[in-house]
Amino acid sequence: MWSAFDSVFDEWSDAYDAAVDGIEKAIDTAGNNDGFWEFIDQVLDVIAIVLVVLSIIALVIGAPLTGLLGAIIFVLAASFLLTTLKFAFGRATLSDVAWSAVGLLPFGLGKLLSRGVPTLSSVIQGGRGVVTAAIRGALPRFSFLRPTTWGTPFRSLFAPVQSARALPKPGMLTNPFDAIRFGGSQTAQVSTFVNTMRSSPYATSPGVQQFISSTAASLPGGIRQSLNSVIWVGSSVADWAGVADAQPEIAGLRDVRVG
Fold first, then answer.
1. Which residue of 110, 178, 215, 258 pairs with 183 in a disulfide if CB–CB is 3.0 to 4.6 A?
2. Which is nearest to 99 in space by CA: 248, 232, 244, 229?
3. How far from 149 is each of 4, 74, 145, 153, 155, CA to CA, in Å?
4. Is residue 100 a contact partner of residue 83, using CB atoms and an 8 Å limit?
5. What is the pTM of this model?
6. What does the pLDDT look like over 104-160, one tens digit per residue?
């Protein structure tokens, strides 16, 4: 009985090995080994999570993290390129490519909607400059015959310090809702600084008022703020749906594939 069993087992073992070799050769011949594409999918999953985290940070953290925007754009571009690569090899739909492009809207179209807004550093420098001029302009003219004016030169020297104390830089943290409607945290900081100038004791000076009005006019208006809000909220929902693997197929694009 053992000889009969051993003979049958050997035949089965040889057939199994032959079947395994045949399947491996068929896979190699067909070129449908999914190991590389599984790795790409894992990378895209990680990118989606990183993107959500960076987007939240970008709405809360202002100008000090100057490289943050560049990092977000780099991650978005990597996600878009990898998804396009999958589409080129028939591993993704055009709908997937479109969703990956949605994340670029806040940092592309949003940037266009914020064109003309001066940088925070230039606004701070210009604002303190006009306030310094207002402080010096309000000082009495120096005269040897009037002892009360003898301190004017010294008070004039300290005008920049007085201006800096009256107009401190905005804090690093920003209101995320302001960042959304203004198209970015740095633009929100510009608005915060302008509001600081409005509430300063020097806001009644004509030069300061002119600077405030011109800077405020460069900020996104009501229509652009509404568009920024729609873009940011829509892209954020799309990003969260991507992390949860719940992005719906876009009608008209789901059936478009590379032939």
1. 110
2. 248
3. 122, 59, 9, 8, 10
4. yes
5. 0.73
6. 777 666 666 667 788 889 999 999 999 999 999 988 887 888 887 888 888 899 999
